[in-house]
Amino acid sequence: MAPHFIADLYDFFRRFEPTRHLLADQEQIDTLLEKQLEYFNGLTNGNYGPQYVTHRLMVGVAHARAGLHPKWYIAAYRRYLRALVPHLYRNRHEYRGQFEDYVDSLIKIIFFDMDLAMEAYHHTDRILRQQQERILQRIMDKLPSGVFIVAPNGSIKSANPAAKTIFGLGSNITKKSLKELLPRSDVDDMLAIAINDRKYHGEATLSVNGTERFLAIHLSILNTDSQVSDTPNILLTVEDFTDLRRMEEESLRLATSDILTGLANRLQLMERLTQGISSAKRKHSRLGVLFLDLDNFKNINDTLGHAAGDQLLQQMAARLKSKVRSTDTLARFGGDEFVLVANDIQSRYDCERIIDHILEIFENPFDLDGREYRLKGSIGASLYPDDAEDPHSLLKYADSAMYQAKADVSRRYSFFNRNEHRHFTDRLNLEQSLRLAVERDQLVIKYQPIISLDDLSVIGFEALLRWEDPELASIPPSRFVPLLEENGLIHTVGEWVLKKVCAMSASHPRFCFSVNVASQQFNDPDFARQLFLMLTEHNLSGDRIEIELTESTLLERTSVTIENLNAVANMGISIAIDDFGTGYSSLSYLKRFPIRRIKIDKSFVHDITSSEESASLTRAIVGLGKTLNMEITAEGIETDEQLDLLRHWGCDAGQGYYFSKPIGPDKIGKMKI
Fold first, then answer.
1. Which of 110, 138, 166 is the last residue of a domain?
2. In this predicted structure, what is the pLDDT of residue 353?
3. Which residue of 20, 56, 359, 437 pairs with 442 in a disulfide if CB–CB is 3.0 to 4.6 A?
């Protein structure tokens, strides 16, 4: 019967999905059939000792681990009894009156086997649960987040190590309550929300061992086993994001603060200024923007180094902090520029008092590596709503006023003035256009003939720099040459002019070419060397070039000036004093320096026929030049009367519109000698 029964049993199991997958391997099925047949054949032989018990327990464990549910185990025994009992009954005559005892013994052993199987299942389940609990405990021990199991009243049932660390708890926490760890009112609210909504998310701040900690709190209701308790437990997790908050605060500080001085940076300045304007608008008050710039700060960086410059800026920031009100905003705008937003002022007078208070910081010297340095600063101020009502305009106008203060040495500070600002803006725009003109080669050189007043022949040309802008038309040198000197472009442009003049002189050997050299350019230690290289490049002798200098250049009397004067003279180059008589004239430099020519300014020549004073001065200059064996050139000759007087007084040469306007380089060769 056993082989037939076992085959029928396995056919039965193949009909159900939960057991079908366990019988997919035919080799495994053959092994199971063989063992199953052996088991059923020996089921009734009465050998139920320890070896049998151990074997049945191992079989139960194997079934449990294979995932076979106990109901299928019981189903197998049910089908076994269902097949065996009728078989025994049909053959009851073989048992000689012991049929019922035989059946009873069979039932006992089957239930004994079933009990062993269930014990194996329970044992395996306990082992698996213990393994899971150990894994879960290791996870809880390793979690960086704090985990509590708490009762609805807030009493703590358990906590992982991270929770104890976050709250600074000892090992015994079962008698503690959340209300001892967090503010009582917060705990009541959290528990009430968690019980009502079955969850809660929030943040809390508390002090642990004197250190402020920032925590993220999460609560959720754990499902209860109604057979054990109707009171739910609450799972509480705690994330300590203190380090993250500190990083965020530091990132915000770095994003809104100047690293060197610790003051607000531009970003924070604009935010505070915008807020200040809104506040002033609500209160119907004024707001002042003060723009402070250190005078000659670049000299500190250039002479002492950037480390000393940084040290100075830090000291400046500290002094400024001590002078401003707590309601105001102090920022480093960039470089050596600082901005103060003065809130809640009522008048310009209030702003002036703040400025006077700030300027006191310059009364005492700054200490840089044990040495004292005195500095000055210039302040520009703009007012809301008087000058502007938006942050960018207020800053722009305060900056403009600061430059107005710098331009006037008699002023330490200046309030925004619209007319001065317009002039400053026009000048700034002109400077930008001039830079573009230099880059785009929009500067040109015109040449004005120099005439011998003896026979009215052309003896040379003066090179005159001109700027012909396609949008601004022709800009006079009196407007753009000072800008070239102020922004340092005079060196580049001056060198370019000298090169052009040398090339022109090489192309026209009959003439001497005169060129104006600015003070900054002439005081360059490398000037004489560069000029020598230009002459050499074009194979020119020194007498083909004349250098025109202003009186102010000679009066500087620096060592570089004197060296360049002597070097130029030694090259055979003539040196002329341009616009003689308009500056701080001194007869001593005419004697001391190698001057060959004096050029009388056109302002004198213009009036010699109508002003006795101008005529006397011009005649005296001509006489002085003759006495010193210098040649005299008169500028700005426009009439026959002026020409006749100058020739009568013995003036050597002249130039002006009477003879010719400045001409282009292409017309020089066409001039008649």
1. 138
2. 93
3. 437
